[in-house]
Amino acid sequence: MNQPEQPQQPGPLAGRVALVAGATRGAGRAMAVELGRGGATVYVTGRTTRDRVSEVGRPTETIEQTAELVDAAGGRGIAVPTDHLEPEQVRALTERIDREQGRLDILVNDIWGGDHLLGETFTVKLWDVGLETGLRMLRLGVETHLVTSHFALPLLIRNPGGLVIEVTDGTAEYNGANYRDQMYYDLAKNAPLRMAFGLARELREYGATAVCVTPGFLRSEQMLDHFGVSEENWRDAIAKEPHFGISETPLLLGRGVAALAADPERDRWNGRSLSSYDLGREYGVTDADGSLPDSWRYITEVAVEGKPGTAEDYR
Known about the structure:
This protein is an alpha/beta fold. 42% of the residues lie in helices and 11% in strands. Helix 2 links the parallel strand 2 and strand 3 (76-81). The relative contact order is 0.12.
């Protein structure tokens, strides 16, 4: 006799509404998908759609694809084309979330899109970087986060328990001790750390939590293309860049962020900087291959300080 199918249990984020700002690819896409896997409704934004390509110039990665991946994971994905440097577009986005959902529980500020501006300007002195290029980096990496928070936070604080996640490159400890090789990039990647620190104070009375998270050496679609490899043969790039051996997929940060969002005691992290490794160790999540790369310790000890060791020693 056939047994009746058991109803699926709701995920730990069922009923939650998230906005992942900057979810076209990489860590943003992975965080959106994993929040959806937990059962959340996830609004995903970006500038590249099936009809329009942003200045990043990667037409095969779109917010519609991300929304479909959220659906496939068990959540509900809603793609909303948004340029987060345009206040009226962000206002319309948050008004739509309010109109359709009446709440916002999780805000992920993952907007960047400035890697294409680094190019030959990496390690170049401040005065030799084109001013328009440098200021564009700051607009993309700092102003976008401020615009988004300005419009989204009044909706988020309407209910207690909200979570704001600022996304950057580098932990507070690493970025505080190391210059990120180029002034504009350094400022852009330190700003989200201070935003989380400040928002932790501003949001505390509303029962909300703000943290800053960072992946390690992210094996994103763009990084794979840079080295001319795929996820299947990514280790072939280690011959060209030995430090690539410590790299991780976007999934590790995505899983960690979803676990953080489901943690009823996440306010203990308020104002803190957390790496994908920190989240993995705390919540027992790993990368796709079951490893947990301690990227920032490796980068500090081996890449910067020259301590003997291999990537495998830190995975």
